[in-house]
Specification:
alpha+beta; Alpha-D-Glucose-1,6-Bisphosphate, Chain A, domain 4; Helicase, Ruva Protein, domain 3; Phosphatidylinositol Transfer Protein Sec14p; 4 domains; 8-stranded antiparallel sheet; 5-stranded mixed sheet
């Protein structure tokens, strides 16, 4: 497996030329890097005008590896080739390195770049990327990979410190400025403008544009916290993937980082769960929940929870008096789905408060503290439908709001609590369970209790503090507010079907199709869909004939009169007897869409009739030169557990009268994502 690394943009607040003077002091050896034994210059060249200086070096490293491994490998030192290209005109230094030792077994490739800051010419930017591919190493592939990644991460961390050390050394020597390179005069005493000037102009424009989408190391530390180099790399690479697959707005960096932390920075797992969550948010319009959701009066009166200042670390503090809550009454009066929506609105408000507190306290705050008071908890709270609703809420919150709970303080836990904990704990992530602190009786009042986490001035009055708390006291919900099972079921259906999106399954040999009838030409068909699972090919067809809906049973004439549908959310409309080009025609080029992509597009209709939008299972292309399957095809097929894809889509028709004011794009573009 190839290991990759991508750094954030690190900024030195010194001019490029001064940073280059500090960089050159690292050679031929550097006492600050013990493993860097020596280096020798193999070749050197300078352009006629002196603007570009290229140096080839061979570097000798003493890798910190077990002696047994060195003896088996038969080497004491590892050698690398490095090529440095310093462009004084463009103020860039490009460094490319690769290993010479064991190059047939291990491939290490590194790219680094120093450049003038696009917004401040007196600052310098630095970026680096690397890849490690261990093909074979005497059976020690895993060990070598761990050693290599550990040492590389260590060298990355020291990199900026080393440059700053030599910058300070230059300052002590009285060198605080290095003149910039200037072009020579031509025969008439004028500066010659060459193609290199144009390249520099193009470079500045392109770098400035790309820099807007990159993460700055100082920004990461200020708003996201201290991350290791490899954690920074995971964040940047996942962010880049989202930018490429969702070309519109992407989730906030804090949100991406939460999913990475929840999966121990396993990029593949974090990407999968995050895409599922983004699809869920989009389908249920969770991004607009705070603006659209209004809590019913019964929740305002009897739901015993609310926000209350912040803890000692600046995290928003949420208080839940669970022991005083009539869970049975709330479920009977509201239903499970209304309670879930209310809890989701609490989590959305928590995210908003974290952003506010990050600005107020000047440090990253990405989670909140929850204080749960269990005084009054009894067997009534173990009512089965109530526990079922609680487990459902925990499941949804765990999947879509990972790493948002910083600490959970459970106070005054009664004897019945272990029973509830046994029911609930299996549904809570292990990392989340480690954040639980449980106090029985009045233990929370002593040392190691509440005052260690919350300032004494804001401890609520019902816990012995002096601060008035606005959290409702609860009580029994009047039975007159209870609703029948049928009313609750209808309300639950209404809540979670209030979405403009539909879901469909696509099977191998069974596409999903949607027909749209167009009366007036020049109308616009728009679409917006997410590929939730698998890869699909999107087609648009036109037919003068109306396709027939699929029949449930075969007609007497035989099976050809019906269309088989593998699932209730899979509809096929194009009759198998139809011929492409005769009965129907393709009006847009096929678009291949990969799993996780979010696609928007539109089509201006040229003729009235019936337009068919089709999502087809994407078959891996076979080799044209042989009947044998390619290795890539076999590996890809092994990764697909079943020949099934899933999409979530929405279509709309803009009538001819309205379409003239719109700018229409027939190319696919990305839809706006959640938490952006």
């Amino acid at each position: 497996m190839v290991q990759k690394y991508q750094s954030p943009v690190r900024v030195y607040k010194q001019p490029f030329e001064l940073v280059m003077a500090a960089y050159e002091r690292r050679f031929p050896t550097c006492h600050l890097i013990p493993m860097f034994v020596d280096s020798e210059v193999l070749g050197e060249s300078v352009t006629d005008d002196g603007s570009v200086h290229t140096v080839q070096r061979r570097c000798k490293l003493d890798v910190d590896a077990p002696r047994l491994l060195k003896r088996i490998a038969g080497v004491d030192y590892v050698y690398f080739s490095q090529e440095n290209t310093l462009n004084k005109r463009e103020r860039t230094l490009h460094i490319e390195s690769h290993n010479e030792t064991f190059s047939n077994r291990v491939i290490i490739h590194e790219l680094c770049c120093y450049s003038a800051h696009p917004d401040n010419e007196d600052w310098t930017c630095f970026e680096q990327s690397a890849s490690l591919d261990i093909k074979s190493f005497f059976g020690f592939e895993s060990t070598v990979e761990k050693i290599a990644m550990k040492q590389y991460a260590s060298s990355i961390k020291k990199g900026k410190e080393i440059i700053e050390f030599y910058l300070n050394q230059l300052e002590e020597e009285g060198i605080t400025q290095v003149p910039r390179w200037s072009p020579s005069l031509d025969a008439r005493g004028r500066f010659s403008f060459t193609s290199s000037h144009l390249r520099r102009l193009i470079y500045v424009v392109s770098f400035t544009s790309s820099h807007l989408h990159k993460l700055d190391a100082d920004y990461i530390k200020r708003y996201l916290g201290d991350l290791t180099p490899l954690q920074e790399s995971c964040l940047i690479r996942l962010r880049q993937w989202l930018q490429e697959s969702h070309k519109g707005k992407i989730p906030k960096d804090e949100h991406i980082l939460r999913f990475l932390r929840a999966r121990d920075f396993n990029m593949d797992k974090a990407r999968e769960t995050m895409c599922q969550s983004l699809t869920w948010r989009k389908q249920h319009q969770v991004d607009h929940l705070l603006e659209t959701w209004t809590s019913p009066r019964v929740l305002s009166d009897y739901y015993t929870g609310g926000w209350h200042h912040h803890d000692k670390e600046g995290r928003p503090l949420y208080i839940l008096r669970l022991g005083q809550m009539d869970t049975k009454g709330l479920v009977r009066a509201l239903g499970e789905e209304s309670l879930l929506r209310h809890v989701l609105s609490i989590n959305e408000e928590g995210l908003r408060r974290c952003e506010e507190n990050t600005k107020v306290f000047g440090r990253p705050i990405s989670c909140w503290t929850c204080l749960v008071d269990l005084e009054g908890l009894n067997m009534r709270h173990l009512w089965r439908p109530g526990v079922k609703a609680l487990l459902r809420i925990i499941e949804v919150v765990e999947a879509n709001y990972p790493e948002t709970l910083g600490r959970l303080l459970i106070l005054r836990a009664p004897r019945v609590f272990p029973v509830l904990w046994t029911l609930v704990s299996p549904f809570i992530d292990e990392n989340t369970r480690k954040k639980f602190l449980i106090y029985a009786g009045n233990d929370y009042q002593g040392p190691g209790g509440l005052v260690d986490y919350i300032d004494k001035e804001i401890i609520p009055d019902f816990l012995g503090g002096d601060c008035m708390c606005d959290v409702p006291e609860g009580g029994l919900v009047p039975k007159s507010l209870y609703r029948t099972a049928e009313e609750l079921e209808n309300d639950d259906i209404r809540l979670w079907t209030e979405t403009i999106y539909q879901s469909a399954s696509i099977f191998k040999g069974a596409p999903h199709e949607v027909v749209i009838e167009i009366i007036d030409a020049a109308s616009v068909i728009t679409w917006d869909f997410d590929v939730c699972k698998g890869d699909v090919v999107f087609h648009i067809y036109h037919s003068k004939r109306a396709p027939q809906p699929p029949a449930r049973k075969d007609p007497p004439g035989g099976p050809h009169g019906s269309i088989t549908t593998p699932g209730g959310n899979n509809v096929q409309l194009i009759d198998r007897s139809w011929t492409l080009g005769l009965d129907y025609s393709m009006v847009e080029s096929p678009l291949t869409c990969r799993e996780g992509e979010s696609v928007q597009g539109s089509h201006v209709t040229r003729w009235p009739g019936f337009y068919i939008l089709q999502w087809r299972f994407h078959n891996m292309p076979g080799s044209s030169s042989t009947n044998l399957p390619r290795v890539d095809d076999v590996l890809a097929s092994l990764q697909v557990s079943s020949h099934k894809c899933k999409v979530m889509y929405y279509t709309e028709v803009i009538e001819k009268e309205c379409s003239h004011s719109l700018v229409i794009s027939t190319s696919a573009a990305s839809t706006e994502l959640s938490l952006s």
